[in-house]
Design brief:
The protein is 41% helix and 12% strand. The protein is of the alpha/beta class.
Length: 317
C-alpha cells in the first residue's frame, strides 16, 4: 500500500544556497521529517551531505573546514580578482567573461575544456563526504544534472554519491564534465535549478522547495555591450525556465539574501540566519499544505492536483 511521501527540494545558487542549511536547521528544530531530498548544483552538495550525515551541524562543520582550507582557496582563486569589485548581482558568467576579456583565461580556455582539473575538483568533494552509494543513504536522495550532448535533464538516484554531486555542481567551463553511464554531465542548473518535478516523478505527494537563486530584478544592470546583451538574454532565459519549473512545488520559499555575491562563502552565518527566518515566516503555510496534500492524496494513495508540468520528460538513472 502506498504511503504519503514528502520531499525537500534545494536549488542551486552557489554561496547563496548556504541558506538551505538555515532552513534545514528549522526543520530539525521542529522535528519535521522528509522522505526524499532532491538537489541541483550547490543544493545537491548540501542535500547529499544532509542525506548522509542526517545532522545540519555536521554538514556546517564540514563546509567551514572546506572554506578555510588551502585547497579551497587555491580552487576559488580562479574566480577572484582584487582589481575589480563585483557585486551580488554579478553572475558567474559575468565574472568569467570579464576576466576572459582581460586575457586572464584566454590561453587556458583555448587549450582546455575546464579550468579546474578533476583531481582538484574531487579533492574538494572528498573533504565534504566519503565515497558512498546513493542507494545506501539513510534518506533517499537525487541529484539533477544536464546531459551535455542531448540537453536532457538527468536525475541521479544511484551509484557514487560524490560523482553524482560532482556532476550536478560542475559549472560548465570551470569544472570538468562528469562521465556517468556513458553520459557527459554538467551543472543541473542549466536544466532545472529548482527540481520540484523530479521530486514528484520520484513519488513525492508534497514538495517543499527552497529557491536561493537570483530573479531577473536581481541580476546585473542593463548591458552596455553586445556581449553583455548576449549574456543577459542567456540569464533571463534560464530564470524564466526556473520560474516555470519551480511552479510544480506545493510550497516555495525564497530566502531574502540581499546583495550576496555568488562566491561569497564567508557569508555562511548570514545565510544560515536568512534561511532560518524564511522558514519561520512560512512554517504555518508548510504545515497547512502538508495536511492539505495528505487529505487530497488520501494519505498517499493517489496523486491528484498535479498539472501536466510534472510529466516533463527527464531521465532517471
Amino acid at each position: 500500500m502506498s504511503r504519503f511521501k514528502s520531499a525537500l527540494v534545494l536549488s542551486g545558487g552557489s554561496a547563496r544556497a548556504l541558506s538551505h542549511l538555515g532552513v534545514i536547521q528549522e526543520i530539525e528544530r521542529r522535528n519535521l521529517k522528509f522522505d526524499l531530498i532532491v538537489g541541483t548544483s550547490m543544493g545537491a552538495v548540501i542535500g547529499g551531505m544532509y542525506a548522509y550525515f542526517g545532522d545540519s551541524a555536521r554538514v556546517i562543520e564540514r563546509l567551514k573546514n572546506l572554506f578555510e582550507s588551502e585547497l579551497f582557496l587555491k580552487t576559488t582563486s580562479i574566480a577572484v580578482d582584487e582589481d575589480f569589485v563585483f557585486t551580488g548581482s554579478d553572475s558567474f558568467i559575468h565574472r568569467f567573461m570579464w576576466l576572459f576579456r582581460q586575457g586572464v583565461f584566454y590561453t587556458r580556455t583555448m587549450l582546455k575544456m575546464e579550468l579546474v582539473a578533476y583531481d582538484l575538483y574531487d579533492g574538494l568533494l572528498s573533504m565534504l563526504m566519503p565515497e558512498v552509494l546513493i542507494e545506501d543513504l539513510p534518506v533517499p536522495f537525487a541529484a539533477v544534472a544536464m546531459d551535455l550532448r542531448t540537453g536532457e535533464e538527468i536525475v541521479l538516484t544511484k551509484g557514487s554519491l560524490r560523482r553524482a554531486i560532482a556532476a550536478s555542481s560542475s559549472i560548465p567551463g570551470m569544472f570538468p564534465a562528469i562521465r556517468i553511464n556513458g553520459r557527459m554531465l554538467v551543472d543541473g542548473g542549466w536544466a532545472d535549478n529548482v527540481p520540484a518535478v523530479p521530486a514528484i516523478v520520484l513519488g513525492a505527494h508534497f514538495v517543499l522547495a527552497v529557491d536561493a537563486t537570483l530573479d531577473i530584478a536581481g541580476i546585473s544592470t542593463y548591458p552596455k555591450s553586445a556581449m553583455g546583451m548576449l549574456l543577459r538574454c542567456d540569464e533571463v532565459s534560464r530564470i524564466l525556465l526556473n520560474r516555470h519549473r519551480k511552479s510544480a512545488a506545493d510550497v516555495l520559499i525564497v530566502p531574502e539574501m540581499g546583495d550576496i555575491f555568488w562566491a561569497d562563502f564567508k557569508s555562511l552565518d548570514h545565510c544560515l540566519a536568512t534561511g532560518r527566518k524564511v522558514f519561520e515566516d512560512n512554517a504555518s503555510t508548510v504545515y497547512k499544505q502538508i495536511l492539505l496534500r495528505r487529505f487530497r492524496t488520501l494519505k498517499g494513495a493517489i496523486h491528484p492536483g498535479r498539472t501536466r508540468e510534472w510529466k516533463h520528460p527527464l531521465v532517471i538513472v
